[in-house]
Amino acid sequence: MTITLSFLKTKTVSNKVACNGANQDSAKRTRTSNNKVPTNKRLKQTFVFLVSIYLSIDTAFAAKLVTLNLKNNMFEPSIITISKNTKIKLVIINHDDSPEEFDSFDLNREKVIFANSTATLFVGPLPKGTYYFFGEYHPDTAVGKVIVTDCETTQLDSSGEIEKC
């Protein structure tokens, strides 16, 4: 006994369609595009996904680690020097018994660092220039700057300006 389920039947279309020429061409284009578009779309999506994962991992590992200590309501070091187009991972350690808010209009960053705790910020890559930051709760003492230069290493004079590369 054979049971035929009509909803499971598929229709096979051969290349020799008994139609006029215009309909046959459009039928071929429809078949071709319907077969290739989902495959190409999935390949493109997979490719974009894998590239984005690679770039995010590469970017995270490419960041230069800079540690900034907060002691007695002051940032140490108060001057951070990096070369241009460098991404930095800024780890701020608050050694004080009171919270502080790292704030920078130039870097477009703000982060509360609770008492005796650590916070992490990613900054950059930055073009050449000077970028100021401060502690919002102690703006008179907790101040600093990030100096971005063309040089790999720099030497600063007593005023904190670049003396030589």
UniProtKB/TrEMBL annotation:
A Pfam family that the UniProt record links to this protein: Cupredoxin_1
Domain EfeO-type cupredoxin-like positions: 54-148
UniProt name for this protein: EfeO-type cupredoxin-like domain-containing protein
Species of origin: Glaciecola nitratireducens (strain JCM 12485 / KCTC 12276 / FR1064)
Lineage: Bacteria, Pseudomonadati, Pseudomonadota, Gammaproteobacteria, Alteromonadales
